[in-house]
Amino acid sequence: MNNYGRFLESLEFEVVDPHTPRRWVNTVNGDIAESNVDQTGGGSFSAMIDEQVVEIIAKNNLFGGRLFYLKDFYSGKIWCPTWLPKKSKLENFSTVHGFNKSEIRSLGEQLEFNATFSTSKNNPAERYQIKLKNLSAEKRRIHLYIVVEILGEQIATAKKMGEALHFTKRKDKDLTYFVSADREIRSFDTSLKSFIGEYPSSDLGEFIDKQILSKTTGDTNSPLAVMEFAFNLGSGSSSDLTVLCGAVKNLKGTTVNQQITTIAKGEFVSFNKNTEFILNSPDKDLNKLLNGFYFQKLQSLHLPIILQKGVESLANSLCASMFISRTSAKKIAEQLLCNQSTDGLWQNSYSLSLKSLFAITKYVNYLGFEELKTSYKYSNDTEATLFEHVIKTLKSLLDAKNELTTGEKAQLVVILYEVIAAFEQSNHHSIAKKYWDDLQQLNAEISKAKTSNFLADKTWPIISKSVTEGEKTMKHFAKTYVTTAPPNITTPYIEFDPKNIYSQFNPGEFSNGAIDALECADLIIAATSCAQGDYAWRLVGQILPIFLGVNADRYKAEPFRQSALISAKPSANYGEAITDDQNLEAKVYAVIYQQILGLNIVNGSIKIDPCVPRDWKNLEFSYKLHEASYHFRIQNPFRVSKGIDRVIVDGVRITGNVIRPMRSGVHFVEVILG
Predict the structure, then answer these.
(1) 234 and 313 housed in the same domain
(2) Rounded distance, CA 330 to CA 389, Å?
(3) 12 to each of 34, 127, 521, how far by Cα in Å?
(4) Higher pLDDT among residues 377 and 450, named by residue
(5) Is 48 within a domain?
(6) Phi first, then psi: what are they for 101, rounded to 5°?
């Protein structure tokens, strides 16, 4: 795909050049823990302990939170098998970022190095499984040094896993941070001064001082767990090592040693293969991304760590998790509702709960009106039905509509449309009529607004088909703001700053030279609602990381992680995309399936309405809803973007495009566009 790596047939991503534009990180999740592992083994580690996110391993600004060094005892040669920080010359290098694990393989100085990083399923610990193999004709003594930046005040280690622990500090009364291994740790030191060589510990301090790092390692008060292991390797022989890092609670009646032993014997997570969504589109890399990494990301939406994130992240997660797991969706919906105060306003910097309410109303439509009667936890541990939540929040927003910006009013129009649809489908016509009147009034106010500062303000009003002038507005927007790619730009391009509002900033700074990916996702929704399939797919090409990865030097970010910003304006020095921490993968995943593939769940039934590029002849995807599986085949004989000629379910043509849910079995759905 690019000079740095490629998607494998296993759907994993292989990095073949460690010198990527930036650290390319894989997220490895357990049920309560999360490891970030970059292509050189660096990164960070955190876990949920007593409903609090605890950082256990940090990534220093100047080096990764994990470092690996090898030393040939006889020759004195020192090198880094993971390339950094010495940038050692290696004959072969490969990092496979896979599903809940990362594996680094390298060959240097006639020694094979293999390290696999994984996370405990139910405990706050991560594991490194290391294998060394001597390819030389001589017997060798190899020393391996592992350096981990532990954030705890109290660190414990053992000569071997399960033996008595030696405590270096004992200030933290609640937690013990630990490192442990299944073979002898020849030396262990947590002193920063020792690490940077201000005084020697064994031969470690002097060796690091002279050979690896300068004395300007960086400002940190965190102790560094420096472990040394010795291997005697005959010609062609190999040896293994397992290391655990993590934290445990200080419990009465249970020693730290016993807890570490339990963790070591416990389960470490493995990826559950995607069986919910399986896409077979004309773009093979798109299939690998959506069937692989994006699904892995969505599988972890139940994580307590995810539930501690902000409103934007939760709202995005809810839009996708309702497709993946009803249980996860309910947890996320509860978290969104619990973050509201009694008057419906957010108790944080996001102000009014527009994005969350939009996600909640989509969720209501997905499950059907009966879900409105379900009680959900509310702030102060009280409970109310989802119906009461939606009505109360809508009332507070409508009462405060004069304080809303044009963009916020536009979002509220779309929310009202979703609410109206839910009530209409459940025969609550009087409530639907009331909100229809509110919607029309808001739409009239939006139409009077002459200017708006953000792309989202222009796109939200036209997402809803209930807006009378929606299609005209979309065509006007496309004509006014959307241009074809200039000759010096090879990627799809949007000119969104005609008045040079952001021209004072350099490319990549603030919004100049970059488009917010969330806004781009909203524009995809707007484009598909007006049958602009080719344009919508151009936007997908602009937002999906697999396409950004083709030009990795420009976009910097990993081809398997979602970027928060997308470079747009031509410049000698292109903007740089940062990776997203708001679960944007979930939003993009939902947009592609709901808008491009046209798969929507409405009141418990499947509604199919694709909007694809005109040159797509056909595509296939599978979806599992409850106990029934559906295999969709979309055919486009007339080369249109949108519009359905007929829908055939299990060989029988149906009226319209809504498929009533089946209780079980495998069902085949053929959709002919026209």
Answers:
(1) no
(2) 14
(3) 19, 20, 25
(4) 377
(5) yes
(6) -165, 155
pLDDT 10s digits, 48-57 = 887 777 888 8
Is the separation of the CB atoms in 596 and 528 below 8 Å? yes
Tokens read off for 312: 């934007």
Instruction: State whether 252 and 377 are in the same domain.
Output: no
Over range 61-75, report the average pLDDT.
79
Find the domain containing 235 and state its range.
10-265
Q: Which of 196, 197, 243 is nearest to 66 (CA)?
A: 243
Q: What is the pLDDT of residue 171?
A: 43
| Domain membership flag for residue 357 | yes
Cβ density class 315-329: b for 16+ within 10 Å, e for less: bbbbbbbbbbbeebb
Residue type, 426: S
Write the CATH number for 610: 2.60.420.10
**pLDDT score of 99 more than 60:** yes
d(CA 385, CA 394) in angstroms, rounded, equals 14
Please give the pLDDT value at position 64: 64
In the three-class reduction of DSSP (H, G, I as helix; E, B as strand; rest coil), residue 661 is classed as coil
Residues 245 and 338 occupy one common structural domain: no
| Length reported for the chain | 674
**359 and 260 in a common domain:** no
Task: Return the SS3 of 231.
Answer: strand
| 434-443, Cβ contacts within 8 angstroms, sequence gap of 24 or more | 435/394, 436/466, 438/398, 439/413, 439/466, 442/401, 442/409, 442/412, 442/413, 442/416, 443/413, 443/467, 443/468
Q: Strand, helix or coil at 342?
A: coil
pLDDT given for residue 521 in this prediction:
76
The domain boundary, picked from 365, 399, 433, lies at 399
Q: Examine the pLDDT at 673 and tell me if it is beyond 90.
A: yes
User: For residue 492, which of 384, 382, 567 has the smallest C-alpha distance?
Assistant: 567
Q: What is the DSSP letter of 272?
A: P
Looking at the structure, tell me whether residues 261 and 307 fall in a common domain. no
Residue 132 to residue 144: CA distance in whole angstroms = 10
Question: Is 373 within a domain?
Answer: yes
Give the residue from 346, 380, 399 where a domain finishes: 399
Query: What angle do helix axes 326-338 and 354-367 make, rounded to 10 degrees?
Result: 150
Q: Which two tokens stand for residue 631?
A: 């295999």
The three-class DSSP label of residue 301 is helix
| Calpha distance 361→176 (Å, rounded) | 44
List C-alpha distances in Å: 130 to 17, 30, 65: 21, 20, 17
- Looking at the structure, tell me whether residues 250 and 318 fall in a common domain: no
**CB distance 412 to 404 below 8 Å:** yes
Q: What is the CATH number of the domain that holds 103?
A: 2.70.98.40
pLDDT digits (tens, 9 = 90+) for 76-92: 888 999 998 778 899 99
CA 298, chain centre distance (Å): 8
Q: At what angle do helices 311-324 and 354-367 cross, to 10 degrees?
A: 10
Does residue 321 sit in the same domain as residue 260? no
Give 241's pLDDT tier (boundaries 50, 70, 90). Answer: very high
Average pLDDT over residues 223-239: 87
Residue 642 lies in a domain: yes
Q: What Rg, from alpha-carbon coordinates, does the chain have?
A: 27
pLDDT the model gives residue 592: 85
pLDDT of residue 458: 42
pLDDT for 308-346, tens place per residue?
A: 556 667 777 787 777 766 777 777 777 776 654 333 333
In degrees and rounded to multiples of 5, residue 211 shows phi and psi of -105, -25
Strands, E assignment, 191-272: 224-233, 238-249
Same domain, 336 and 238: no
Q: For the chain, what is the domain count?
A: 3
